[in-house]
Amino acid sequence: GDSVTQTEGLVTVTEGLPVKLNCTYQTTYLTIAFFWYVQYLNEAPQVLLKSSTDNKRTEHQGFHATLHKSSSSFHLQKSSAQLSDSALYYCALRGTSSGQKLVFGQGTILKVYL
Amino acid sequence: NAGVIQTPRHKVTGKGQEATLWCEPISGHSAVFWYRQTIVQGLEFLTYFRNQAPIDDSGMPKERFSAQMPNQSHSTLKIQSTQPQDSAVYLCASSSQGRGTGQLYFGEGSKLTVL
After folding, report:
1. Residue B98 above 80 pLDDT?
2. Which residues constitute the domain of residue A65?
3. What is the CA radius of gyration of chain B?
4. Is the CB of residue B89 less than 8 Å from the CB of residue B110?
5. Which residues numbered 24-83 in B keep a CB inside 8 Å of some CB on A?
6. Whether B45 and A32 lie within 8 Å, measured CB to CB
7. Which A-chain residues 52-81 have CB contacts (< 8 A) with chain B?
8. What is the number of domains present in chain B?
9. Which of A53, A91, B93, B94 lies in the 20 to 30 Å Cα band around B105?
10. Nearest by CB to A44, which of B42, B50, B106?
């Protein structure tokens, strides 16, 4: 089956510095799409980024990610973290063996400090 | 447009009692999903429906959990004989069918606490 791994449970960074959240995956069959979801405190998870094209950079709200099928990765990065970026981030994939469901990683809490 | 609506937002039950959680998907969306969210496990898939038909319930604990979608405007997740380990946030999501990446739109969740 498909699986997604987010190695860090918690990432802390000082405001203004770059941040990277790691995401790797394993899949038995073809993959259709990859997502980063963000969940702010007491809110619903919402899509931050999505991609289905290998080696193409996707950007939104200052964040960017590039799907690299050669290394099975879809890391999330931002060049300058903001206090408002503090949230829970999930990486997810949709594969052909998953039907319409998304398979999520365990999530990474990002805390941005002054 | 209203998003996915989940009720109740918070529910407290005693051990052994039943809990029913409700979800109203986004109008026009044909697929409805249930996930369980905990600190340890993250977002765990439970089950999903497409056009009201159950498609995949591979994540559902078989004995006490059940889900239904009696019409296109709502789905329920029922947990019988609740146990403390069932305490979690239960998230409902919906998605439109057809071409595209299949993005899920989540509700704010129902937080279940089993005492």
Report:
1. no
2. 3-113
3. 13
4. yes
5. 31, 33, 35, 41-43, 45, 48, 50, 55-56
6. no
7. 52
8. 1
9. A53
10. B106
Task: Based on DSSP, count helices (H) and strands (E) in chain A, helices before strands.
Answer: 0, 12
Interface test mutation site (partner A, options B32, B33, B43, B50, max chain A beta carbons within 10 A): B43
The residue behind tokens 């919402």 is A46
B84: CATH? 2.60.40.10
Q: Is residue B28 part of a domain?
A: yes
The pLDDT of residue A53: 92
Q: At a CB cut-off of 8 Å and minimum separation 6, what does A77 contact?
A: A18, A19, A20, A21, A63, A64, A65
Asked if residue B102 belongs to a domain, the reply is: no
A101 contacts in chain B (CB < 8 Å): 33, 45, 48, 56
pLDDT tens digit sequence for A32-60: 799 999 999 999 999 999 998 999 999 99
